[in-house]
Specification:
The chain is of the alpha+beta class and 312 residues long. It is 60% helix and 18% strand.
Length: 312
């Protein structure tokens, strides 16, 4: 009896396990389309966090956009560099400025001698349209190794706005003075009104000149370039590694030695007459000194007198 009851319990346990597995399979078959269906997909898309919008890119050339709308910014760009292709670089700078609608404001060129060589230097000031300053910067720096670079921006919005307000105020005042002048009856009133009108006109012209100067500096950025010529192209490249510096030092040493020898030869060639004259003077001086010394007879010089003979 116990044996049969044990068999029945085992059969019931097996049947209950099968039924649970079938229920799980049914549930999985029903739920699977929900996870892959459109409703579940829509909910997942809505629940996903939105990606941040990309930040606006800065203009080419490294200058940021104006800090606020209507800002009046004066931009300045300074370069220092060395070049072994002086004439080609000077020509390129002038052509680039002209192509971008700019112009040369000031140019100063001078020469300096190093080891007998005449090397040139250039100090150049350009005016480049501010809207194309980034393009100038990109093209100028493309194939050059810079020794120094400085960017600066000056906000003159307050000064510009104040100047505009003063101009409008003065224009209104001048208009009123002219109306008063046409209505004046006495000579005293006419003189006073004309004096005030003259002062207001002078002040207006001064503020208009200030505004024109600000407009010019805002619309055309200033670019200053200090460029020096070098004879060795290695002096232009950036010194990144020890071997590059070693190579440059070795080549510079040889060039310096050759230049020094050439300098000595040139010095001797250009001053040989003075050197000959100096040599003649030295020889004559030595002969005069030799003649002024007292000379003893050769016999006395070979056999100087004894002390006993000197006493007698």
């Amino acid at each position: 009896m116990k044996k049969w009851m044990t068999i029945i319990l085992i059969v019931l346990i097996i049947l209950s396990g099968c039924s649970s597995k079938s229920a799980q399979s049914v549930d999985g078959a029903v739920r699977e389309p929900v996870h892959e269906g459109g409703a579940a997909q829509d909910m997942s898309e809505d629940s996903m966090p939105s990606q941040p919008a990309p930040e606006p890119e800065e203009p080419a050339g490294g200058f940021a956009k104006p800090p606020y709308e209507g800002a009046k910014i004066i931009r300045t760009l300074n370069y220092t560099l060395r070049t072994s292709e002086y004439d080609a670089d000077v020509k390129f700078i002038h052509q680039l400025a002209e192509e971008l609608g700019g112009y040369v404001e000031n140019s100063y060129e001078y020469a300096s001698g190093v080891y007998g060589e005449s090397l040139r230097s250039l100090s150049l000031q350009l005016r480049i349209p501010s809207l194309r300053l980034g393009e100038f910067q990109t093209r100028f720096e493309a194939d050059r190794t810079l020794n120094g670079k400085q960017l600066s921006q000056s906000d003159v919005t307050t000064t510009y706005t104040d100047t505009e307000a003063r101009i409008k105020n003065l224009e209104t005042r001048i208009k009123r003075y002219r109306e008063m002048l046409s209505e004046a009856e006495t000579m005293t009133d006419i003189i006073e009104i004309e004096r005030a009108l003259s002062e207001a006109t002078y002040e207006l012209e001064s503020y208009e000149s200030t505004k024109k100067d600000l407009d010019s500096r805002i619309d055309f950025s200033q670019v200053s370039i200090e460029m020096s010529e070098v004879s060795d192209p290695l002096q232009v490249k950036a010194k990144d590694s020890f071997f590059q510096r070693l190579q440059e030092g070795f080549v510079s040493g040889i060039n310096g030695f050759i230049a020094g020898v050439q300098g000595i030869v040139i010095f001797l060639a250009s001053n040989f007459l003075w050197l000959i004259l100096l040599a003649v003077l030295v020889v004559l001086g030595r002969k005069l000194l030799h003649l002024r010394k007292p000379h003893l007879p050769r016999k006395n010089r070979m056999n100087p007198p004894k002390e006993s003979e000197k006493e007698e």
